Description:
The complex is a heterodimer of chains A (122) and B (504).
Chain A: E1 4-8, H1 12-24, E2 28-32, H2 35-44, E3 49-52, H3 61-70, E4 78-83, H4 88-96, E5 101-104, H5 110-121
Parallel strand pairs in A: 1-2, 1-3, 3-4, 4-5
Helix pairs in contact in A: 1-5, 2-3
Chain B: H1 2-6, H2 10-44, H3 50-104, H4 119-164, E1 169-174, E2 179-182, H5 184-190, H6 199-206, H7 212-222, E3 226-233, E4 236-248, E5 253-267, H8 269-307, H9 313-344, E6 352-354, H10 356-373, E7 377-381, E8 390-392, H11 394-411, E9 417-425, E10 428-435, H12 469-479, E11 484-489, E12 493-501
Helix pairs in contact in B: 2-3, 3-4, 8-9, 9-12, 10-11, 11-12
Amino acid sequence: MQKKILLIEDDDLIRDLYKTELETAGYSIDGYATGKEGLDALGKNSYDLVLLDIMLMDTNGLIVLKAIKANDATKDIRVIMLTNLGQDKIIKSAFELGAEGYLMKLHMTPEDLVKEVKNALQ
Amino acid sequence: MPILKSLNSFRAKLIVGLIVPVIIIFGFDFYIFTQGRQLEALLRTAPITQDKILTLEKGMQNFSHVSFFFLSLVIIFNLGIVIALVVILTFSLRTILSGIKKIEEGDLSFRIVLNSQDEFGTIAQFLNTATAKVEVIQKSIEQKVEQRTEQLMQEQARFKASVDSLSLGFIMTDDQDKVVTFNPAVEKIRGPDNRELTIHQLAQEFRESLDLHQLLHKSRYEKKIININEASYKDKAVRLLIAPILIHAEKGVVGEEVIGSVVLLEDKTEEKQLEKMKLDFVAMAAHELRTPITAIKGYLFVFIRDYKTILNTEQTNILDKISIATTRLILLVENLLNVAMIEKGTLRIKPEVVDWTEYIRGIISEMSDKAKQKQLNLIFTVPKVNLPKVLVDKTRIGEALTNLLFNAVTYTPAKGRITVWAEIKGREVITHVVDTGIGIPKEALPKLFTKFFRVSGSLEVGIKGTGLGLYIAKSIVEAHRGRIWAESEVGKGSIFSFSLPTSG
């Protein structure tokens, strides 16, 4: 069955790039630019994985992560942070809040992302 | 005793006291002699009558009276003379002594009043003259001392005003760490509501960042100035300069004897805040740049991958150039972020055990496109013996090595060669990046790893750079407890080497 992924990323270009690449790899992707839209989508649909940016237009990705993990309906969904913030304390907080992985966008190719997603969904 | 006083010496007075009784006695003798001759003549004429006997008797009685009279006169006169002399002597001595006492007590304006012409009068006059001379000398000395004191006070006031108007905190101590003086800036740095300024108190306030007593002692003992660029003090950041006061005691100039210390305090809080704001801005700007670069890098990757087969050589060539520029852009942005982290002290190392040979191979393959583009031969000489594993933060040490390789590629002209090799030395793995580039002048080598340093002339030869790469490489290598160094010869090339401790 096709796996469903929620991609919350505020930069249109990057969101489109990753969406296309993951769809080509056979995943179903819902892409949103804001934390609010992402949480709304989580309330309506079920997802196998969330790819979550940290610096969003309306909120901080860590707050979204906290909300996902605080909700019984969504707390078991795997979340991978997808960001360009490399500060130790942010990485630490993300893992403490229940993130499954932490990826630095600048240091990987779209193919690397597909590999990481594949690993996470196995 | 006006007569005695008018005799102008004490000796004269004594002589008069002796002569007058002698004259009286001579007068007495003369009377006795003449009267005796008369009586003798009377006795020689016979006969002896009753009258003659009576005359003789009367003459004898007269002798007795006159003798008594003269003797009394001599005694009275001499007594008078003695008393007078004693009175004069006592008076004169007393006057002179009380005068001497007054002078001795410091009243140099006092003059002995003794209206006599004798030796005491002379002594008094001599004393008066001497005192007057001393008074003149003393007055001139006093005047000079006053002038000099005023000059000194003016100098001191000027010095104090200069020290007080400094924005630097200034504290002077003696060689026992007792505060001699300090300026208002010290109180400003210490803030309001403070206890009395002593070195002990200041050391207490500094105890979290440094040992002030020990630094003061060290500076005096080694006769050296100690500079602490930044120390936290209360909620502030201060710069501290501790200098020994060295003096040549006899000449009063700078010498070898240590008589105390000077502590200078500079409030760097504001400067540090500005620096932090600057670094925050650099970090923020660099981070913002990461987003569009991620998109460029991603799309470029997808484009080359998907359309490689249908692109002609020229098109592929152009795309390769865009790739190289993107890699350079990423390195620049990462360098800016690294500098901000190094400066803020937030550069952290997350070490893991790494196979160094494999790791270098990976980094080199990432750089090979760029080297090929510039027609450079980039070679990795694989060590003959297996290298032990190293404990490194892969991302960070990769940035350090990439910076070295990037420099080698940049500063080596086309058709040159870049060789990377590694060796074991003791408990360290040493990695060398050797190029056949333009080289570095000898005088630039010591400053090579300092922030923003650029070899003079490199702008002229048209090679870009921020002067950050080597500074970052050094900071990263040192954060791994390693060392970094360079050897070079202009026109022949450079060797950059760094050591890393092995994981074992």
